[in-house]
Amino acid sequence: MSTATLLLLTLLLPLLGAVGIIAAGRYPNVREGVTLVTASLVAILVVIIAYRFLGGEEFALFVSEPIPGIAIAFRIEALGMLFALVAGLLWIVTSIYAIGYMRGLNEDNQTRFFAAFAVAISCAMGVAFSDNLFTLFLFYELLTLSTYPLVAHSGTAEAKRGGRIYLSILLGTSIGLFLLGILITWFVAGSVTFQDGGVLAGKLDPAWAGLLYALFLFGIGKAALMPFHRWLPAAMVAPTPVSALLHAVAVVKAGVFTLLKVTIYIFGGDFILSNDVTGGLIWVAAATILFASLIAMGKDNLKARLAYSTVSQLSYIALGAMLATKSGLIGASMHIAMHAFAKITLFFAAGAIYVATNKKLISELNGLGRAMPITFGAFLIGALSIIGLPPFGGMWSKWYLGLGIVETGQLILLAVLMLSSLLNVAYLLPIPIRAFFSKSAGGEQYTEIKEAPKTILLAMIVTSTACALLFFYPDPFYQLANLAAGGP
Amino acid sequence: MQDHLSLLLVVIPLVAAPVAAVLPQGRLPWFVALMVTSACATLAGMQLWAVVHDGVISYELGGWAPPWGIEYRIDVVNAFVALIVSGIAAITLPYALLSVEKEIPDHQIPLFYSAFLLCFAGLLGITQTGDIFNLFVFLEISSLSSYALISLGRRRQALTSAYQYLIMGTLGATFFLIGVGLIYAQTGTLNMMDLAERLPGVSGLKTIHTGFAFIMIGFALKLALFPLHLWLPNAYTYAPSVITVFLASTATKVALYVMVRILFTVFPNGFVTATPAADLFVLSGIAGILSASVYAIYQVDVKRLLAYSSVAQIGYMALGIGFASAMGVTAAIIHLFNHALMKGALFMAVGAIIYRIGACRMENIEGLGRQMPWTFGAIVIGGLSLIGVPGTAGFISKWYLVLAALEQQAWISVVVILTGSLLAMVYMGKVIEALYFKPVTETNIVVKEAPMLLLTPTWILVIANIYFGLDAEFTVGVAEHAARALGVVAK
Amino acid sequence: MDFIIGHYNYWIAIFLMMAGFYTVISRGNLVKKIIGLNIFQVSVFLLYISMSTVKGGAPPIITKGIEIYSNPLPHVLILTAIVVGVATTALGLALVVRIKEAYGTIEEDEIHRQDHSL
To answer: From CA A482, how far away is CA A487, in angstroms rounded?
Structure first.
């Protein structure tokens, strides 16, 4: 198949899947079959594309030119490939998980749920493959809109409130700030196409560059930098598979991915470094890392704690992007993948606990470990990977981030990184420890509680194994990250 | 035929109007109107084609050469506006059949279509003519018939809003007449091209400035430019659904056309920026966008909410004009077209709801989104276009408007434009929430989807919203061409 | 002083204009508003007509021995405008009749009161 066909298929297949899901809505087994087949095909497709991409092939596709000079066009480069690979591989795992989860809880409107999910994946692929800021913005907004029904899925007052916060912050920041940033870029540089070395160098007065970067930094609300992070905890009212794939992987990573794209291909690392564009802004990321971790410690709701942990971890990537050194960018790009695998494991475990026991609060988990060893085992692995301990993948991204900081010599940031790792330990590890070693408040033995359905367990085992494998074989992701950062 | 294209465009509906009035009750008057509007849409399309390819058309009415006779002078600008007017009319009429039968008493239907055609003829006449007094006559033809059409609304407030509009509209038209008189007194001509030649010589005179001010105020009233918009929310709310659709997407657009024509073609270059007019446009645009959008948020009647949104959207166009740059006028013309598409689609969808349940207050429409999924879909996409989400026509408008503002380094305007989008998000969010996220009320549980005849035109406009969001080559090309034809030069 | 007397026709037009405009704005009675509107329009007609006079000019009817005519164009224009004005008045009055039928009053305050109480 030609490269353009492959690219187009990756974008269209999830959409076709959504149509098939709606058509098969009345027959749950057929519908889930459609989901699984589509998701597997997409996973296979991204692997093939990644293989051929690393083999040196060019993937590009031009669709139309809505505004003279600005096209809807796609082109795969290393960073987009990395993001698409993560999202594509994790979709199939999440689908398996979601089927067990949704059936386990007898949720309503499952057809709408799976259809919107597939559309969201298509949008995420669109974000990953965009060739210019305009196309990226188009899919960025569509991603927000298509995930809204998933957030407000349950239809309760709380879900609607969460949905409203979700929409208003994401649309608000993107229209109010991100779009303005794109417009100014177009106005100044006459181009919004992603280019190696950026398009702004030499065209933008460095004095204004910091301001423009701030527009992007805060305008890309999906990156959840404080103070625009509120939507992410609010989105946790969604069913757990949504939180797992979209709000730990696809949506939030689309945000930091966009930020990285802007950094590398619009500003250009050299432009940022030589003009110290991000010197002040980097502290916003540092502050978000610490504050979000502190807030996470105070949350008793398991998903809320994970959400704030995500906010904090996303800022690692933003921080890496703003370092703009080679190691920093490699670290940031790799963290997209590493954090995705680890965090999705944690969410899977949280969902498994909820399906099996209907418990949402950390304080209720005492003693559950013996009843659900696989779940909490997976949780432990995910947590260790997030903290950045070997032998789990999370170590590599932190390693490169640390290197990046050392290269710039801002040792305070290194202290932030260390402190944050300690905070990670403090808010994540007590959860499995409680489960395995503490006695429940009433002293019951939870003999009646069993592990969650098999599909859920399977998904967890796959992602936690992946966390470990990524320590030993980080290679495809490292290669892509290295390419994106401008390395050989 | 080719030669008389421009005249036929006005004459056909003008002649058909009395015919429709004397036809028997039933569907015949509708059919006549349908034929006339489709014919005019085709002719307007041909006219635009001819103008783009062969240049300006000049038609001497009755063979009297200007400046004595009336000249119809068509360039890209008015050909484009004429196409918008007749295109919207042609899409509205299939929609009108059922909606009008529901909302208008049987014996008034022939008269309704007669008045509709008159209004249509008047609007087209305004776009076609190159004579400023002839323009006044057509303005009054369209205005008088629209007062009558608005008064046909089902609720009695329709009468008072039509009356209110009549008073305001006539004041506006008379102001225009005063302005024309003053300018005629100084230049001795009514032909726009002659005026354009003679005005530079006298543009320093106080009389000319006074005349200019009168004309602007007069048309600002017709355009419902903030703060002269007070008639619009009532008129749009209480008019029959079809008339709201038609007027919202054409009447204000034509008024805007006259505005740019007079500002940039008739008056010499630099006149606008030398007077406070340009700044006033920007000021009024900013105030209109912000205040009308905030008003819209607090409305409980969906039609009135959309009407206030229209006032805000007119503010965007005023901003574009106020920048007085090629980019600004291009943006205004693009938005003129796109706004016709989005408001047409939205008002049609609301009309479909009214067709089913007879009302469109927030408490009446709760939960209807599940009952009427296609209508709901139209409102969602129309709303997204109004907000300016990429992939919709509204985004293209916003894109060019912000670029125009950036070019002038008008930072406040940039912020206002984007804030307007956010406010649109809030008020459209309210509508969508009522339609979809409120539980269905007991009375609404039996409501079915609107008939195909209402949905098809609505969705034609909805799809146009998406199409022109993804491929704006036509809109942008014509608008840029139009800005050049108007003779706008950068500040 | 010459300026004032010399332009008396304009002063009359302006006076009528303001009087009409004021009536439209200030009166609550719908018929009175329409009368005000009429006065306002007529003042503009006067403005046009008086503008068209040419000093020493005869009425614009071709007659032997007359060289200077007044400008006929404004007369023609105003004929049209008069027709428009009559149509507006007729439509306005028709609306007032319908309003009277619907509300039982033609006073603006009363109508507002009724609508708000609805």
So the answer is: 5
Does C37 reside within a domain?
Answer: yes
Q: Does A168 touch chain B (CB under 8 A)?
A: yes
Q: Express each pLDDT in B307-326 by its tens digit.
A: 999 999 999 999 998 888 88
Neighbours of A403 (CB within 10 A): 16
SS3 B246: helix
Q: Are B340 and B88 within 8 A, CB to CB? A: yes
- Each domain of chain A, given as residue ranges in start order, spans 278-488
Instruction: Note whether residue C21 is domain-resident.
Output: yes
Interface touch B157/C40, C-beta < 8 Å:
no
Residue C63 lies in a domain: no
How much is the ipTM here?
0.92
Look at residues B187, B183, B191, B245 and name the one whose alpha carbon lies nearest to residue B218: B183
* Type and span of the H or E element at A63: strand A60-67
Task: Answer whether C95 sits within 8 Å of B163, measured CB to CB.
Answer: yes
Measured CA to CA in angstroms, residue B404 lies from B98, B140, B329 at distances of 42, 34, 9
H/E element, A65: strand A60-67
Cβ pair A318, A214 in contact under 8 A: no
pLDDT at B65 over 80: no
Q: Which residues contact C86 (CB under 8 A, 6 or more apart)?
A: none
Chain B residue with minimal CA distance to A64? B471
* Percent residues over pLDDT 90 in chain A: 1
| Backbone phi, psi, residue A2, to 5° | -70, 160
Q: How many Cβ atoms from other residues are within 10 Å of residue B313's Cβ? A: 28
pLDDT-derived band at A445 (thresholds 50, 70, 90) equals low
Residues B456, A359: Cα–Cα separation, whole Å? 49
The pLDDT of residue C18 is: 92
* In a domain? residue C7: yes
Residue C118 in this model has a pLDDT that exceeds 50: no
Distance from CA of C73 to the nearest CA of B (A): 9
Q: Where are chain B's structural domains?
A: 298-306+334-491
CB contact under 8 A, B406 and A172: no
| Positive/negative CA dihedral, B404, A191, B476, A4 | negative
Helix (H) / strand (E) containing A188: helix A179-189
**CB contact set of B28 (below 8 Å; sequence gap of 6+):** none
* pTM, full prediction: 0.88
Handedness of CA B430, B434, B435, B436 (dihedral sign): positive
Question: In this structure, what DSSP letter does residue B349 have?
Answer: H
| Cβ–Cβ pairs < 8 A, chains B and C | 69
* pLDDT confidence band for B172 (50 / 70 / 90): very high
Does B429 touch chain A if contact means CB atoms closer than 8 Å? yes
pLDDT in tens, A309-344: 888 888 888 888 888 888 888 888 888 888 888 888
Spell out where B325-479 has E strands.
Answer: none
Query: Rounded to a whole number, what is the distance in angstroms from the first to the last CA of chain A?
Result: 28
- Pure H helices in A358-410: 373-387, 394-408
Q: Which residues contact B468 (CB under 8 A, 6 or more apart)?
A: B337, B338, B341, B393, B396, B474, B475
Angle, alpha carbons A182-A187-A189 (nearest 5°): 90
Q: Does B217 touch chain C (CB under 8 A)?
A: no
3-class state of residue B71 by DSSP: strand
Residues in chain A: 488
Question: What value, to the nearest 5°, has the Cα angle with vertex B41 and ends B39 and B47?
Answer: 105
Torsion angles phi and psi, residue B225, rounded to 5: -75, 130
Per the structure, the count of domains in chain C is 1
Using CA atoms, how far apart are residues A184 and A210, in angstroms rounded to an integer? 13
Residue C47 belongs to domain with CATH number: 1.10.287.3510
